[in-house]
Amino acid sequence: MITRTLREIANACGGRLSDIQYENLQVHAVEIDTRKLHEGCLFVPFAGERFDGHDFVGTALEQGAQAAFWPVHRAQPEVNGALILVDDPLLALQRLAASVLRESGVRVVGVTGSNGKTTTKDMIAAVLSARYKVHKTNGNYNNHIGLPLTILQMDVDTDIIVLEMGMSSRGEIELLSSIACPEVAVITNIGDAHLLQLGSRDEIARAKLEIVSSLSEGGLLVSNGDEPLITQVLKEASTIQPKKMSQVRFGFEQDNDIYATGIMLNARGTIFTTSTSDQASYFIPLLGQHNVSNALAAMAVARYFDVPEEEMDAQLRNLVVTGMRTEVIEGVTGLTIINDAYNASPTAVRAALELFDLMSGFRQKAVVLGDMLELGPEEVNLHRLIGHEFERMKIDYLYTYGPLAAEIASAASAYMPAERVKAFQDKEELVQELVSVLTPRDLVLVKGSRGMRLEEVVRSLRDTAL
Known about the structure:
The protein is of the alpha/beta class. The protein has three domains: 4-88, MurE/MurF, N-terminal domain (Udp-n-acetylmuramoylalanyl-d-glutamate--2,6- Diaminopimelate Ligase, Chain: A, domain 1), CATH 3.40.1390; 105-317, Mur-like, catalytic domain (UDP-N-acetylmuramoyl-L-alanine:D-glutamate ligase, 3-Layer(aba) Sandwich), CATH 3.40.1190.10; 327-463, Alpha-Beta Complex (Protein-Tyrosine Phosphatase, Chain A). 33% of the residues lie in helices and 21% in strands. It has 16 helices and 22 strands. The chain has helices at residues 6-13, 57-62, 89-104, 117-128, 146-152, 172-180, 195-198, 201-208, 228-234, 289-304, 309-317, 346-358, 379-388, 405-412, 427-437, 455-463; strands spanning 4-5, 16-17, 26-27, 29-31, 41-43, 67-71, 82-86, 107-112, 134-136, 160-164, 184-187, 220-224, 246-251, 258-265, 270-274, 282-284, 327-330, 336-340, 365-370, 397-401, 421-424, 443-447. The strands form four sheets. The protein has a nine-stranded mixed beta sheet with strand order 9-10-8-11-12-13-14-15-16, sandwiched between helices. The protein has a six-stranded mixed beta sheet with strand order 17-18-22-19-20-21, sandwiched between helices. The radius of gyration is 24 Å and the shape is globular.
């Protein structure tokens, strides 16, 4: 974090010090977890379902915290140290992050979308790192708490910060955008995640387009041009957007500003060519057309920041992304596992299946699918529709885990032999069945919503001799 005195912090977040004697003490970091405290940090307490961080403020100060936020509506505790009295600790944290970001002059890239935002964020950070000092969201620290913490963790010499913005309901992206005020906003796609909360893809599109509500004047929107809902919502009178906003559209259709002209998979990743580059081809160590789309978005951002093509290519070739996203793992006896167990929606599952269907050179191919969560009243039908995808796919085994995923197996059984389509409610039984039919020369895809914890299946397959 860029160093601030307690007086500066109080002014930035609209608070006041409990005692003016502390005003010149300096803070070098912000923490919300007492287990991670260190000398000179600011402790921000939150009240959770299982605990109340305000109960630990005294302990935090004793353990070396320089100060702590404290809500003015609560009785002030007797502690040995500085308190910054604020209306609300969360709001104060957000105000502080916004203030630090504005004063730093760091340029901001915001990334949202139904699928692929974490991978795209990683790709953008990678290509920009060729020329700039870049700070990015760690993992999926992309909500109303994680985003301000990410800002406050950046180094003083940061040139560009790449912020992932997640949401589950309307207004959340608008809040994050108001904190970050991005110069560049990226929308990867409009999928069907969060249908439970929002009810329709139109509403999901409106929620994602909130990212341009605080885009800087003359800023750039980089969006998926294959998605007509983005254009539709941008034309709506209720969509808040800045003056003189420029746009770059990416995708696979030829009316986009940048589109893929060719794609080829190999065992290590994906090779592709684009419509806008003299570069012969690009390579990413990730599998699938959807990751090419993510790369096109990153390349559009890199061009905006004047990163040369050859440097983009080098950064993409050596890309490292957040785990459990189309991650290729080799088992102890040679089994190839595609670990895509971080999240799942109908759009994401279809993309993974299309990728999997294209892969060749294996003796057998098996798919493990878990429940897709938060899909709302149509969840059963949406799972059954995934099952019908197997009519056109050359896949040897389909195993599912969870009560909703069982609907996938039920629908797919119309197209596959009964003994090769099975639904499980127990992971150990699922793994035992997989081990009984797979060989070291086979390929298996594992995908499901994060709450299904299918990474446990991945680990078992990785460590078991076939």
